[in-house]
Amino acid sequence: MKNYEALGVVETQYFTVAMELLDQMCKSSDVELLASENYLGGRLVTLIVGGSFSDVDVAVQAAKQAAEHKANNPLKMALVISNPHSEIMKYIVSSQPNMVVEDTELESVKTENSKGKKKTAKK
What we know:
- The chain is of the alpha+beta class.
- It is about 40% helix and about 25% strand.
- The protein contains 4 helices and 4 strands.
């Protein structure tokens, strides 16, 4: 698991605003999106970015400035967590990136169909 000097957490209203803030954060400094969570059907979105402390701080400040120019300031919370503990990182960053869920209904149907086919020998 990659270690980050700092985490930036930004919580805002509306999914489209969150994407705009994320764009500003990534353009302003060298941060990496670690996780995002949608609540209330995308009306409340949390973005978590990681990187060096100075990069994360610049990214969070850029998100704050971008949100100030919007009507009703949709930014609910923005903070920087320095030197995050490895126990916290287990809940944010998956230890298996690109993990594929194999037990889906579609996958189950495919495996049942392939198991159900029997080879018959010709006499």
